[in-house]
Amino acid sequence: MQDFPKVAFTKRKSYIYNYQHNKKMKRNRKTAAVLAGFIMMALMMVSCNESNSYRELTKQEIQSAFLTVRGYHTGKMVYLKNIGNYQTKTDTVDISWTIDTDSTLTIHNFAVEPFAEFITDNELKEALLQQPYQDVKCKIHFVGLSPVLFYVGVDAPAYNITYGGQSHKVQLAFYGIANSFGVYDVPTQRMEIHLVGAGIYEDGTYKEKYLSTTNIPMLLFTPNK
Prior knowledge:
With about 220 residues, this protein is of the alpha+beta class. It has one domain. The protein is built from four helices and twelve strands, in the order βααβββααββββββββ. It has helices spanning about 30-40, 60-70, 115, 120-130; strands at about 1-5, 70-80, 90-100, 105-110, 135-145, 150-155, 160-165, 165-175, 180-185, 190-200, 205, 220-225. The protein has an eight-stranded antiparallel β-barrel with strand order 2-3-4-5-6-9-10-12. The chain is elongated. The chain starts with a strand and ends with a strand. The model is unreliable at about 1-35 and about 45-50 (pLDDT under 50).
């Protein structure tokens, strides 16, 4: 494990998650600070003037952005460890992903460990850790060209598992647009994808009690090179 990296603040305010006004989060100041730092890591390569107004990319620009990042990518998935104090640590697993089209991305062999770290029910946690890795489909939306920036909407991976003496369908949900996103820096050819876990659904019902109230799953995909 390694200390969670500290990154300088960026001016790209329009893409920073405004966690303070999201009622579902209900996290303490420690988590809010870590989340802000985590998101700023993705934006460290973005250097644009605050006065620049946002606009939707044209179809041609979206195609250009897609052609820049399309294909198969490999790297590490870095995630927060839930160690129950103010010392923030991370762990890593190998990961790969494919940007299939200008609107879809596939995460291959998605690991459940980043979510399991924050599950408070031990039976559910152990049952989930026994599940095989699976490919996860995502929707993407390109919003920037230099660097290439895209929002990520994760289709919640589902697992049919037994715990507490009953069988359940468990889904791992992620926050979507503006909270989970990817950045590709053209000069360095470096891509990072950041995903923020939102919660757990059991048989279609959101179960806030199953996830830690002091921290949340945060995932960072980094390239091998």
